[in-house]
Design brief:
The structure holds 2 protein chains of 2 kinds. By secondary structure, chain A is of the alpha+beta class. Chain A has one domain: 2-Layer Sandwich (Heat Shock Protein 90), CATH 3.30.565. Chain A contains 4 helices and 5 strands, in the order E-H-H-E-E-H-H-E-E. Chain A has a 5-stranded antiparallel beta sheet with strand order 1-2-3-5-4, covered by helices on one side. In chain A, strand 4 and strand 5 form a beta hairpin. The longest helix of chain A has 20 residues. Chain A starts with 5 loop residues before the first strand and ends with a strand. Chain B has 2 domains: 152 residues, Orthogonal Bundle (Globin-like), CATH 1.10.490; 111 residues, STAS domain (Transcription Regulator spoIIAA), CATH 3.30.750. Chain B has a 5-stranded mixed beta sheet, with helices on both faces. Classes of the chains: A alpha+beta, B alpha/beta. Chains A and B meet through helix 1, helix 2 and helix 4 of A and helix 9 and helix 10 of B.
Amino acid sequence: MSAEQSGTQPILLEQDVVRARQLARTLAQGCGMSLINLTKLVTAVSELARNAVVYGGGGHMDWQVVEKDHRKGLRLTFRDEGPGIPDIKLAMTDGWTSGGGLGLGLTGAKRLVDEFELDTAPGAGTRVTILRWA
Amino acid sequence: MAALQPFTLTAIRTHQASLVAEWLAGLDASGATRNLKADDLKRQTEEFLDLLHAGLQNGDASNLNAGAWDEVRLFLEKLSHSRALLGQDSQQTATFIFSLKGPLFALLQREYSEQPAQLANQLLQVSELLDALGLHTIRTFQKSREAVIKRQQEELLELSTPVVKLWDGVLALPMIGTLDSQRTQVVMESLLQRIVDTGSEIAIIDITGVPTVDTLVAQHLLKTVTAIRLMGADCIISGVRPQIAQTIVHLGLDLQGVVTKANLADALKLALHRLGLSVAKAG
């Protein structure tokens, strides 16, 4: 994996959500992703980046362009040092929210991508890794 | 901090002409004088030295906030402001002050050549004074820039939410860009107000220009729709493109009960139909 094909972007403020989205859009276009897959990925990025800002108190987005069997994809990791999620099962329930949202961000993001991995513990921050093939 | 020696003040006064000449030469060499008229610059340097001298005579160099420095501060604020308008950056503006150091230090060195201890002391004083004045120009410069940015942001917010009347009783709101809480608030307010003002029965919110519809945007839209209904009007959301539709389904958003259309034309057609109007070919 060459150096240009991975990187990190800080997500500290509400405005950074838009910047993370724009970066994901540019990267996905570079992978030759179709408009529908691109829109799904960018929407998932929007949800996860906003979660990192609102619930995690800010974090980072690591990105990596991956390739397998001549197919390109984008792997993104959202990590924050926030309070973590005490009950993963509850958090992955449609309509449940600890804030004032619709409670569909995390579960919706999972349905919008090909691979989804949630790594969290109370007090240990949250890491969400997603992957979308072009 | 001890004040500057009267001897230093006298020295500045006596050698003012040569100070100005050297200062101007230094400014010229640093390239900070681009776009500036030579006459203006000369007048500004002379005026600044006069004011500096007056300030030093009446006040303490360690406290620039004191009344004795009012005129110097005012001068620098005006200077920063005019430089900002001329398109100079903060560095060029601050260089105006900082480049006085060279000639002034050289002068002090000549005057105090017999008293090295005094020289060191006076150099430190002058240096600290000029640093403080330079920082003041940067601060002022930054403030005027920030004021410009803030004004533009507010203008953008207003500009980005035009409510247009499509027909008697039909309003449309073309949304463009990112929908955050603040913008939604502005949008909702202006739309609801226009509904009252025009007595409209149908409002169309067009999201063709919104690139990403996530749960937050959806939540804002649903709140706006609810508010419109509470006012006794109907709401249609148009501009739902195929990729947005698929994304909404995957997110699990429930837009049932909200009338949506693929484009603004369809939405207008539906609105006219509801008002009992139809568009026919002339003749």
